[in-house]
Structure formats: structure tokens, C-alpha cells
Automatic annotation (TrEMBL), chain A:
Sequence ranges assigned to domain AAA+ ATPase in this UniProt record: 130-276
Gene3D superfamilies noted in UniProt: 1.10.8.60, P-loop containing nucleotide triphosphate hydrolases (3.40.50.300), Winged helix-like DNA-binding domain superfamily/Winged helix DNA-binding domain (1.10.10.10)
SUPFAM superfamilies, A to Z: P-loop containing nucleoside triphosphate hydrolases, Winged helix' DNA-binding domain
Subcellular location per the Swiss-Prot or TrEMBL entry: Nucleus
A GO term, aspect molecular function: ATP hydrolysis activity
Entry GO CC: nucleus
Record's keyword terms, sorted: Cell cycle, Cell division, DNA replication, Nucleus
Source species: Rhynchospora tenuis
Domain Cdc6 C-terminal: 387-470
Protein name (database record): Cell division control protein
Region entry Disordered, spans: 1-52
Domain of life: Eukaryota
Protein's GO biological process: cell division; DNA replication initiation; mitotic DNA replication checkpoint signaling
Automatic annotation (TrEMBL), chain B:
Official protein name in the record: Origin recognition complex subunit 1
Family, as annotated: Belongs to the ORC1 family.
Major location category of this protein: nucleus
Pfam families: AAA, AAA_lid_10, BAH, PHD, WHD_Cdc6
Compartmental location: Nucleus
PHD-type domain: residues covered: 129-180
SUPFAM superfamilies per UniProt: FYVE/PHD zinc finger (SSF57903), P-loop containing nucleoside triphosphate hydrolases (SSF52540)
Known partners and oligomeric status: Component of the origin recognition complex (ORC) composed of at least ORC1, ORC2, ORC3, ORC4, ORC5 and ORC6. ORC is regulated in a cell-cycle and development dependent manner. It is sequentially assembled at the exit from anaphase of mitosis and disassembled as cells enter S phase. Binds unmodified and methylated histone H3.
UniProt keyword list: ATP-binding, DNA replication, DNA-binding, Magnesium, Metal-binding, Nucleotide-binding, Nucleus, Zinc, Zinc-finger
Superkingdom per UniProt: Eukaryota
One function term, GO molecular function aspect: zinc ion binding
GO cellular component terms, semicolon-separated: nuclear origin of replication recognition complex
Keyword Magnesium annotated: yes
Length: 484, 776
């Protein structure tokens, strides 16, 4: 998520200011609105909450907007801490917005160490007027791109403050390149020099290897998702890093990717040339950090949406699973949505609703809990029998893969043992169809083969899960004797 | 646009497609436009004042007033899409194919200028002849006019400074335009005293003072007025995207917006051409336009016309239009002739009439079949099979209310507020569980909410991963639907990136939220997955206003993708479980409402069977349809007419259909084998049973066959024939055999899942050779 909602503001003042700027008006508005809607709700308590939320939204807006604007005109700031009211659409919207991935907090919490290291590196390069390269790695959703944007803004502000020439900053996301060598032409765009007949790379190399009459500006190149540049001969990646080693090179190259050892694995040559970029690792967030970041995002709202216990639960679960901040935010958002639907459906006029442990539990299980057992139980009967036959086949043969033909045979046997007087079971064409369905559900994997019969089948879920799911099944239980 | 510029006669198109057109030969140069004007002097003026004399049927004077009244009725305005039913009383309308007014003939498929209401009377004398921008006299044989490719104005060759001798090749831009581009002051020649500058119909149309439309049908009201139903064209300025740099000066968009127009508001013909025709029409006059795309007035997106014409049957608008026109109106083939004879206008009409024919071909065929159907009363079974066919789709799938509600709250949650937060939803489920149909139904519901003003409008784009020639082409597809401009995928990717991440606008107007539905999402997985990365990254950008709904079969697609993509995909999932038998029955019964074609419990039987194997609604529908077809076939054999009417689908039909689907076709094929083939199969089963193996050699088989034949007094036809029989069985897929050059050591194998059981089942009661069952 490279661009930031508050990035443009951050340019002018990298401090806390933009935050207060952007948040307070909405706070004001929402607080006054909340009071209004409360009034609406209280005045007509007998009316059951109607299902059309849209109409309600419109109503609330119409009533509340004039007052709020007047309030703002008079500068009448609410003194007390506003109360969280989930029935207020404006508050709900503000919460959802705060939890959206695209909304960017003014300061990235918990990444100060990494940010400072990157900043110091760039500062040193600027001060000594030399080129340099850096490699940033970390799991998805650990704030790499975000931190680098912050560093970029900070650096630009710093250079202005100190009086250095403002460096040129380029951010390139490699997924948007149509061809990996296009990256050089994107970098070259900043120089606007024409030397015809040369490729963009050669032109860049010429610029950096000869003393120019007017030395170009320092350049900060941020290359996001760098591993998309890996070609079969790795030349693009290699040349890109080599640009920083040229005698008159004036660019600071910062690469971002997920793999921790990208430079070691793909660029062993760089190490031998003694220009291996230093690596800064963004570790996955731990539970405290996740908790802190979510708190930070919600702080601007000024009311407690979440039960602290629920937030901690979310933080623990997400940090244990992946430490992906995007996931944590998505879980929180879906928990808020659960609360919203609950309020809409329920009829009691309870005053206070926060997102409780239960909501969070539901949201988390939606995201993380494996649903194998449920999936198996919701399968059509014949597909269940296929699975059962497959498990039996593996148990008997002590192998872990089979072919469609063999499985078909076992399935026919199983079917006959269940329905002794049954006519023949389902034909081969439909059988492959069902296997395809099972593989779509992610329960088994179908290999590729020229002939339908000889496609390999492997189980992707644990056989004990299947056995557990079939406990108490009305058909399969009858033929226990098949199972050892 | 500046309309004060001069123009020329022979139309040399400015677009690149035309660069290749050969320059007009001097003899021809002329003045194809002026020649047209000479042969058909003066376009018809159809003002209500002078029209009555030329109207085909005398109309009582009282209707005159009424006609003028109806001129003001809202239906004449292209912006009102609402069709008032009262305008077309069902019983009395008479449909015509063409109508002749004055000496101009309008027929279905023609393009026309339609006057805008209100402004009609003021400029009643329309200049039919374009005048030179310098000397203000029209073109003639001696004075050829040339058109400027920038301002579309006409100039006499002689009036130019310096004068041109012949029409130049390629693009030509007048000196006024070039001066203007260079930033010089431009002084247009003033018209002579007492003459005011008249605008041509084309200029009026392009500046929005006229409308263009294509006639779809013509009918007469009870009061004798003639009405046209037409589909409107729009100029690029009238679309949500505004005029784009790639739009040609004469480009129009066809819309999916229908309107009824009284014939008096028709000005005259214009000619809207597709790109090919437009390229050919280098000097066909001033009233030709270019149309490549259809513009959807509801979703504000663009579709290429050939794409639409291909799947024309799917078009909702046209199908329900078809539906109410076939009611009771009798199709009247006689063309109405006016007083004047039909003049030789074939040359001018040629391009257009050809277009009309090509376009309406599917429709004509459809109406013909409908006529045929009407003549013979449909039997119950025919009705049932028509209702059950996969092509006749209900507007929304039954039994999916919960899922549809979830999709609706998802979309509303994203676009409901003032600001649109980008989101992503992944829908998965096995085939035939109504995934795409549900999303479409939700979108239709939301559209009606947009129309009623509850929800703010959004743009809905649909693509299918299966229909893309390569995953990268999805950028092209999306961009084309957003802006109406086809570019290469690289350019499209660049533009979309600019749009979504930097907020660069695609059109002039404020950006609406975009709902992007991608069917078969798994087809977009490339080796480095960059396509999916880009598409799923856009919603996480601020201000992207993009909502992505992806549909695929596999449940665990996000887990197979690289973590950075699944991280961006979010956790919003929606699972469409396979239907259970009650739901399947409900789906089928909802289609068969009012048709009592099935005996009791048969539908349940079929549904239970399908639900037990796959839960695929398509499969269930196919089985029931097949059963009704089988029943129809069975009924045809019965001579008794009384029984015919009453007969319904019975158990044997549905069992036959079930067997066709669920049983392997092997058994049927074995039953159809030749006698000798059966003997071979029996021998094979017997030998395999004896040895207990999976395969046997040709040598062993032949021994066995010889012994069987001798025991039962059959003649052994020889090794050649035996080999041929084996090859035939092998070609039919009943047995597997090695290549026949190995002769005796060739290995053979049965190719059915349950081996000998299938053969036994197939050959058990064979009347020809009853002894076979002894060996099975």
C-alpha cells in the first residue's frame, strides 16, 4: 500500500500536526451527530428498529448535519469525551475508515528503530555525497512500504532544513512494470537527457560513470516488490545494484521484498565485488505491537469501540498466525461489522455496545479457523464416499498417492458394501467430475496426465480429520469393517 | 467545437485507419457529396405544418392538434428512458417495416436525426446544403468542396488561399485551424449582408441540439399517428466520461436506451456506420457518423459493438422488448407507399441497409420461430423443456437469499457512505451453484436502488478470466469498459495505475465508485502472479474507489497464492455450498410453475440423485430437460391424440436421462457390439477370470475364442477378422490394446472401471447368443 492518505500533508509537516488536522473535524461532527441520533432514537423508542439501514442513515444525516455545521461555526467544542454509540452511522463510518488499510496513520508505531536506521543510512549517503544501496525485507503486512514513505518524506524535509540539495525521489512498484528492464527507463525519466541509440541502462551507466559538467541531483530510488525483477539470468537485478557502485553514481537504492535472502541467493556476485547491500529486516509484529497499532489508529476517534480484552485476543491470534497487520485490521473490521448486524437484528434498546470478545472470536474464526470438517460434512454423499474410500485405500496400501482408476475401483467396492442391492454406482465420467469437485474444495489434489484414468490423487488434508468428520455418519458407519 | 470553420467536399477521414485509403481519382473526386445532393434535391422537411400532405394516409384535422401535443410528450426526449405503456395500446397497433413520408422512406434499421423537443419550431428551415465557409455558397459540380479534418468545415477548392487544384492525399487541415493552433489571431470571413450562418444538421447534432437514433420498429396508433421506437445515439460529450482525446469528430455511441418518437419529429436520414463502413465511405456526404461502442446509460461503461451483437440474445432490454411486441400486434408486411414514387436512392442507402440487415438477422430468425410456435399449440412437454433449458435464465437464483444479502451488504458497506472504501470479496463454490447469477441479481437490485435515488450511482464492470486470451488482457478489458477506448494492455495498465493510485481522472466528471466483477479469477494466476497483485492492490490504495468481487471454484485459491497477495485480498470470503435436494427441487419447480409435465416425485428422484453426486443445478436442469425431451419422443410414437395431450414425464424417461448422465456409456456400447465382438469380450472376461490377471495377450485370447466358437458351433472367422474386431473394440474405448504390429504378443486389457462386471451386465441377456452368459 504505497501511497498514503496523509502523505501529501506529511510532506509539509512531518510531525503530529496532520493527524490532528484530519481527525478533529470528523470528531467534532461525529460527536454532535451522535448526540442527535441518540435523541432520535430516544424520542421514538416504541418503533422497532427498521431493517432498512439506508433510510435511517439518510434520516440521521438530514437531522444532524445542520446542527453540526452550526456548531463548527461557533467553535463550540465538546468538552466531555464522546460516547461510543454503534447506532450512529457517522461514528460507525469513522471507525471503519480508521480501520481501513488505505487509511494511513500519521506515524507508524513500533517501527521507529527500522525507520531510523534507514533514515540514518540515507542521511549519511547525502552528507558524504556518495551512492549506496539497501535491502529491506520482511513478511507481508509489516509496514515496509509505509515506513519507507515516511522515511522519504522525512528525508526530503531534513534536506530542506539542513540546506542540502533536495534529492529526487522515485518509487517504483515492480508489479506494474510490463517488462523487468523497463525499470531503467523509469529511473531515466528523471534525468531527461537524450543520448540516442543507447538503451536506458546504457544511458544510465554513461551518466553515472563519467564526470558530468553539472552533476545530477542525488536520487532516492525505492523499488517495491523487488523480486519481480528476477529474470532467469538475474541481469536486471544485478545491473540495478551495480549502478550504485559506479564512480560518479549519485543514487540511493532501497529495495523492498519479502524474501530475507534475496541478495544472497540471487546476487552472489555482489558479495564478491564487496558491494552487497546491507539488509534491514522488518520482523513480523508481535502481539503487543499489533495491540498498540490498533490502539493508535483508534485513538483519534476518542471513544472506545473495542473491549480491551477483545483487542488483545485479536492481537495474540494474528501475531501467532502471521503477524500480518492487514489481517489484523481486516479482522477488527469484520468484528465491527458483526456488531453492526447484531445491533440491526436485535430489538432490545441496550445503551452500551462495544465489540466484545465474542464478536472478535467469531471474526477470528472466520479468518483463521480451518473449516475442513464442516466442508466434508456439507459435501454431497457420493463425494463423501469417495473421500472415505480414498482414506481406506491409503490405510490399506500404506501409500500416499493413487490414481483415478484405482480410486474408482475402490469407490465401487465401497458403494456396493453400503448398498448391497444397488445398481451400479456412478459412471467414470461423472466420477472424474466429482474428483474435480473435491479438488476444488481443497480436499485432494489431482495431478495432470494425458489419460483421465491415470491422473494421480493425493490427499491434502489429514486423514484423521476425515475420520473425525465421518464419526456418526449414517451410511459410512455401517461399514466400519472396512476400516482397520 | 468551433463551428465557424470552413470545410471541403470530399471527405478525407483524419483517423489513421484512413491513411491507407487510396486518393480519390480525379474523375471521381468530385463531388460525391454534391452528386448526392443533386440527385435527391432537398431533404424532406417533416414539420408538422407541411407534413399532412405527404403523410401516407389522410388524417382528420382533429388529430393534428393531438399530434403536436404528443410532440411535447416526454417520450420524445432521449433522456427519459421510461417507456410509457399507454403509448402503445396492445390490441390496436399495426407494425410496419417501412413508412414513406414525402419522398423519403424510413425503414426499420435506418438511422435518423430526431429533433429535440421545444427547439423544433425555431429553426424549421434546416440548411440541407452545406455552404462554403469563405464565400457562403453551396457546392456545385464546378465548385468542389473539401472538408477540414479538424473543424469539419467545408471550403471550395477555389476559395482557399492558395487555391487547391485537386483534393490532397491524407489529412487536410484548413489554414484557419493551423493558424489557431499556432496561436495566431484568426478572423473568420463574415457572411454577406442579409445572410446568416446556418448550421447543418450534423453541426447541430454534435453540439447537442439534435438527436440521432436508429429505428427499431414502426407502428401506427389508433389515432393514425405513426410512431417509431428507436435506440438513441449519444455524442461523446453526453457520456459520463466526456469527450476523450481518442474520440473522432464524428464519433457517436449507441446506447441501450430506447425511446418512442412520433414520426413528425424526425428530421431526415443520417448514416451511422461501423468502423469498416466508415473507412470505405470517404465522400458520402455530411450526414455520416462513426460508431464503434455501445454506451450503457446505467452503468456508464462501454462495450464494443461486435461483442454485443454476438451475444445479442442475452441482452435484457431487447429480450423484454421482444416479449411485449410479439403479443397481439399482427406483423404487417405491406410497406406503406406514399404518393411519390420511390426515387433512385439505392446508392445512398446501400451502406445503411446492409448494416440494418446484418444487425437484425438474429432477431428476424427469432421472430420467425416464434411465429411457427404460435401456429401450433405447444404441448406441456415442449413448454417444460423450454422452461428447463439452461439458456432461459431466471432473473435471480432461488434459494440463495442469504448469500445475496451478504453480497449486497458488502457492496453497500463499501459504496454506501460518502466516501468509498476499497474492498475485495472472494466468492467460491463448485460449478452450478449460482455464483455469477447471484452477483448479477444483486447488481440489478442495486441498480434499481440507484435509479430510485437511495444509493449513489456506481459503475459496474464485468470480466471473465476464461474469455481473456491472456491474463494481461484484463487491463485492456477493464480500461476499455471504463473509458471506451481500446489500447494495448501495457498502456492500459499504466493508465489504470495512474487512475487508481494517483487519482488521475479517466473522464472529466467526478469518479464514481467502480464495482469490478471478475469471473473465474483463478485464470488470472500467472507465473509471478503480478496480474492478481495489481488488481488486488488497487483497492488498498486511498481514493481508489474500487471494489473487487472475484469468483472462482477453488476454495483455497488465496492460500495457494503468494502471501503478499493473500494479505491484500483480505479475509472477506463467501462460500456457495452445493445445493441439497430440496433446494434443487425448488429451483426446478420454480421454473416449471404452471406446467404440470412431471409425474409426482420424479423431480425429487432426479434432485436426490444430483444432490448426492455433485449438487450442480445445471446438471439437475439438464436431466429434467432431457427427461422431458425423451417423454416427448415417446409420446410421438403414440397414435392416439387424446393420450398425447395428457401424457407426462414418467419414471422410465427420468431413469433414461439419469442413466445417460451417471452411467458410463460403455455398457450401451457393448450391447451394440457385433456378435463376434461380443464373443471376443466374453472370451476375454473368461480368460482374465481364469488367470486372475489384468491383461492378456492376443495369442491367449485367440485360443480362447477358437475354443468357444468350436464348442458352440460358431464359425471362427480367422485371425484377421479377430484382429480387426479387437481394433474396433479398442477404437471404441471398450478395451485397451497395444499397437497391432506386435501381432500375437499384443497385450489387451479391459477399459472399464469395474472390469468384468460391466461386461456381464451388458451381455447377460443377449438374444443372439444366449450361451455367452455361461462364461460370465
Amino acid at each position: 500500500m504505497p501511497t498514503l492518505r496523509s502523505a501529501s500533508r506529511g510532506l509539509q509537516s512531518p510531525n503530529e500536526k496532520p493527524n490532528s488536522d484530519s481527525i478533529t473535524p470528523s470528531k467534532k461532527r461525529s460527536s454532535s451527530r451522535s448526540r442527535e441520533t441518540e435523541a432520535v432514537v430516544c424520542s421514538s423508542p416504541a418503533v422497532p428498529r427498521s431493517d432498512d439501514a439506508v433510510g435511517k442513515v439518510a434520516k440521521c444525516k438530514i437531522i444532524s448535519s445542520p446542527t453540526s455545521s452550526r456548531k463548527r461555526l461557533y467553535g463550540d467544542e465538546p468538552t466531555h469525551k464522546p460516547k461510543w454509540n454503534p447506532k450512529d452511522p457517522a461514528q460507525m463510518k469513522a471507525v471503519k475508515e480508521a480501520l481501513h488499510v488505505a487509511t494511513v496513520p500519521s506515524n507508524v508505531a513500533c517501527r521507529d528503530g527500522e525507520q531510523n536506521r534507514i533514515f540514518d543510512f540515507c542521511k549519511e549517503c547525502l552528507e558524504n555525497d556518495r551512492a549506496g544501496s539497501l535491502y529491506v525485507c520482511g513478511c507481508p503486512g509489516t509496514g515496509k512500504t509505509l515506513s519507507l514513505q515516511k522515511v522519504k518524506n522525512k528525508l526530503l524535509a531534513w534536506s530542506k532544513e539542513v540546506g542540502y540539495e533536495k534529492p529526487e525521489a522515485v518509487s517504483i512498484n515492480c508489479t506494474t512494470l510490463t517488462n523487468s528492464s523497463e525499470i531503467f527507463s523509469k529511473i531515466l525519466e528523471k534525468f531527461e537527457r537524450t543520448c540516442n541509440g543507447l538503451s536506458p541502462l546504457q544511458r544510465l551507466q554513461r551518466i553515472f560513470s563519467q564526470r558530468q559538467s553539472s552533476p545530477p541531483k542525488m536520487m532516492l530510488i525505492i523499488v517495491d516488490e523487488m523480486d519481480y525483477l528476477i529474470t532467469s539470468d538475474r541481469s536486471v537485478l544485478h545491473e540495478l545494484f551495480m549502478l550504485t557502485t559506479l564512480p560518479f553514481s549519485r543514487c540511493i537504492l532501497i529495495g523492498i521484498a519479502n524474501a530475507i535472502d534475496l541478495a544472497d541467493r540471487f546476487l552472489p556476485k555482489l558479495a564478491s565485488l564487496n558491494c552487497k547491500p546491507p539488509v534491514i529486516t522488518f520482523r513480523a509484529y508481535n502481539k503487543n505491537q499489533i495491540y498498540e497499532i490498533i490502539q493508535e489508529r483508534l485513538k483519534g476517534l476518542g471513544y472506545d469501540v473495542f473491549d480491551p480484552l477483545s483487542l488483545e485476543f485479536c492481537a495474540r491470534k494474528v501475531s501467532a498466525a502471521s503477524g500480518d497487520m492487514r489481517k489484523a485490521l481486516a479482522v477488527c473490521r469484520s468484528a465491527v461489522e458483526l456488531l453492526e448486524t447484531e445491533i440491526r437484528d436485535s430489538c432490545d434498546l441496550q445503551e452500551f455496545h462495544t465489540v466484545t470478545f465474542d464478536h472478535m472470536d467469531k471474526a477470528l474464526s472466520k479468518a483463521f479457523k480451518p473449516k475442513i470438517v464442516d466442508t466434508i460434512l456439507s459435501l454431497p454423499l457420493h463425494q463423501q464416499i469417495i473421500l472415505y474410500a480414498l482414506v481406506n485405500l491409503f490405510n490399506r496400501s500404506k501409500k500416499n498417492s493413487t490414481t483415478v482408476g484405482e480410486l474408482n475401483k475402490t469407490y465401487n467396492e465401497t458403494w456396493k458394501s453400503i448398498h448391497r442391492n444397488a445398481r451400479t454406482a456412478i459412471g467414470a465420467a461423472e466420477f472424474t467430475n466429482m474428483c474435480q469437485g473435491l479438488s476444488d474444495q481443497g480436499l485432494l489434489r489431482l495431478g495432470q496426465s494425458k489419460e483421465e484414468k491415470s491422473r494421480r490423487i493425493t490427499l491434502t488434508v489429514d486423514s484423521s480429520d476425515i475420520a473425525y468428520a465421518f464419526k456418526g455418519h449414517r451410511f459410512i458407519q455401517d461399514c466400519k469393517h472396512l476400516e482397520e | 467545437m468551433e463551428r465557424t470553420t470552413p470545410s471541403k467536399l470530399s471527405r478525407l477521414r483524419s483517423d489513421s485507419t484512413l491513411a491507407a485509403t487510396p486518393p480519390p481519382t480525379p474523375g471521381f473526386t468530385g463531388p460525391r457529396r454534391s452528386s448526392r445532393l443533386l440527385t435527391s434535391p432537398g431533404p424532406t422537411k417533416l414539420d408538422s405544418d407541411d407534413a399532412p400532405s405527404s403523410l401516407p394516409t389522410p388524417i382528420p384535422s382533429s388529430t393534428k392538434a393531438k399530434r403536436r401535443l404528443s410532440l411535447e410528450s416526454p417520450t420524445t426526449d432521449p433522456v427519459t428512458p421510461i417507456r410509457s405503456e399507454s403509448k402503445r395500446p396492445k390490441r390496436t397497433t399495426v407494425q410496419y417495416k417501412k413508412v414513406v413520408l414525402g419522398d423519403v422512406e424510413f425503414q426499420v434499421g435506418d438511422d435518423i436525426y430526431v429533433k429535440k423537443q421545444g427547439s423544433v419550431e425555431s429553426e424549421s428551415e434546416d440548411p440541407d446544403v452545406e455552404e462554403c465557409r469563405v464565400c457562403f455558397t453551396p457546392a456545385s459540380k464546378s465548385k468542389i468542396m473539401i472538408e477540414c479534418d479538424d473543424c469539419l468545415g467545408g471550403f471550395h477548392l477555389q476559395c482557399l488561399k492558395p487555391p487547391l487544384r485537386k483534393i490532397p492525399e491524407g489529412d487536410w487541415i484548413c489554414s484557419f485551424c493551423t493558424d489557431k493552433k499556432d496561436g495566431k489571431e484568426v478572423v473568420w470571413p463574415e457572411p454577406p449582408e442579409g445572410k446568416k450562418i446556418k448550421r447543418t444538421a450534423r453541426e447541430k447534432l454534435l453540439s447537442g441540439d439534435l438527436h440521432a437514433a436508429c429505428i427499431k420498429s414502426i407502428w401506427r396508433e389508433t389515432d393514425g399517428t405513426y410512431w417509431l421506437r428507436c435506440v438513441w445515439y449519444r455524442t461523446p460529450e453526453e457520456t459520463a466520461a466526456g469527450r476523450q482525446p481518442h474520440n473522432l469528430r464524428r464519433e457517436l455511441y449507441r446506447t441501450n436506451d430506447y425511446g418512442d418518437v412520433v414520426i413528425n419529429s424526425v428530421l431526415r436520414h443520417c448514416y451511422v456506420m461501423n468502423p469498416e463502413e466508415y473507412q470505405r465511405a470517404s465522400d458520402d456526404g455530411d450526414d455520416i457518423f462513426y460508431c464503434e461502442y455501445e454506451y450503457d446509460v446505467n452503468y456508464h461503461n462501454f462495450k464494443r459493438l461486435p461483442d454485443i451483437d454476438d451475444n445479442y440474445a442475452e441482452n435484457d432490454e431487447s429480450s423484454d422488448y421482444e416479449g411485449d411486441s410479439d403479443g397481439d400486434s399482427d406483423n404487417d408486411d405491406r410497406s406503406l407507399r406514399g404518393t411519390s414514387s420511390n426515387r433512385s436512392r439505392s446508392k445512398v442507402l446501400a451502406a445503411n441497409s446492409r448494416k440494418g440487415r446484418a444487425y437484425w438477422l438474429p432477431k428476424i430468425a427469432e421472430s420467425k420461430t416464434q411465429e411457427n410456435r404460435k401456429r401450433r399449440k405447444q404441448s406441456k412437454l415442449e413448454k417444460a423443456s423450454a422452461a428447463l433449458s439452461l439458456a432461459s435464465r431466471p432473473t435471480s437464483p432461488p434459494c440463495r437469499n442469504k448469500e445475496m444479502e451478504e453480497i449486497e451488504t458488502f457492496v453497500k458497506g463499501a459504496i454506501g457512505g460518502q466516501e468509498c472504501l476499497g474492498r475485495c470479496l472472494y466468492i467460491h463454490g463448485v460449478p452450478g451453484t449460482g455464483k455469477t447469477m447471484s452477483v448479477r441479481a444483486v447488481m440489478r437490485n442495486l441498480k434499481s436502488e440507484v435509479d430510485s435515488g437511495v444509493l449513489r450511482s456506481f459503475c459496474f464492470i464485468e470480466t471473465n478470466g476464461m474469455k481473456l486470451s491472456s491474463p494481461n488482457n484484463i487491463y485492456k478489458n477493464i480500461y476499455e469498459q471504463l473509458s471506451g477506448h481500446a489500447v494495448g494492455w501495457k498502456k492500459a495498465l499504466h493508465c489504470l495505475n495512474e487512475h487508481f493510485s494517483n487519482g488521475k481522472k479517466l473522464g472529466k466528471k467526478d469518479q464514481k465508485p467502480i464495482v469490478l466483477l471478475i469471473d473465474e479469477l483463478d485464470m488470472l494466476v500467472t507465473r509471478n502472479q503480478s496480474v492478481l497483485y495489481n488488481i488486488l492492490d488497487w483497492p488498498t490504495r486511498p481514493n481508489s474507489k474500487l471494489i473487487v468481487i472475484g469468483i472462482a471454484n477453488t476454495m483455497d485459491l488465496p492460500e495457494h497464492l503468494s502471501p503478499r497477495i493473500s494479505s491484500r485480498m483480505g479475509i472477506q470470503r463467501l462460500c456457495f455450498l452445493p445445493y441439497n435436494h430440496e433446494q434443487l427441487a425448488q429451483i426446478i419447480l420454480s421454473r416449471l410453475k404452471g406446467i404440470d409435465a412431471f409425474e409426482d416425485n420424479l423431480i425429487e428422484l432426479a434432485c436426490r440423485k444430483v444432490a448426492a453426486s455433485s449438487g450442480d443445478a445445471r446438471r439437475a436442469l439438464q436431466i429434467c430437460q432431457r427427461a422431458s425431451v425423451l417423454a416427448e419422443y415417446r409420446v410421438k410414437q403414440i397414435a392416439d391424440a387424446k393420450a398425447k395431450g395428457k401424457s407426462r414425464v414418467c419414471l422410465t424417461d427420468i431413469e433414461g436421462a439419469l442413466d445417460e448422465v451417471f452411467k458410463s456409456p460403455h455398457i450401451q456400447r457393448m450391447k451394440m457390439c457385433s456378435k463376434f465382438g461380443k464373443i471376443v469380450l466374453t472370451a476375454m472376461v473368461n480368460e482374465l477370470h481364469r488367470t486372475g490377471g489384468e491383461e492378456l495377450t492376443f495369442e491367449k485370447l485367440s485360443e480362447r475364442v477358437i475354443s468357444l466358437c468350436s464348442m458352440h458351433h460358431e464359425v471362427f472367422p480367422g485371425y484377421d477378422t479377430l484382429m480387426r474386431a479387437c481394433c474396433l473394440l479398442g477404437d471404441g474405448g471398450i478395451i485397451l490394446c497395444e499397437e497391432p504390429k506386435k501381432h500375437m504378443s499384443q497385450k489387451l486389457q479391459l477399459n472399464c472401471s469395474s472390469g468384468s462386471d460391466d461386461v456381464a451386465l451388458a451381455l447377460k441377456d443377449c438374444s443372439e447368443t444366449p450361451w455367452l452368459s455361461l462364461y460370465l
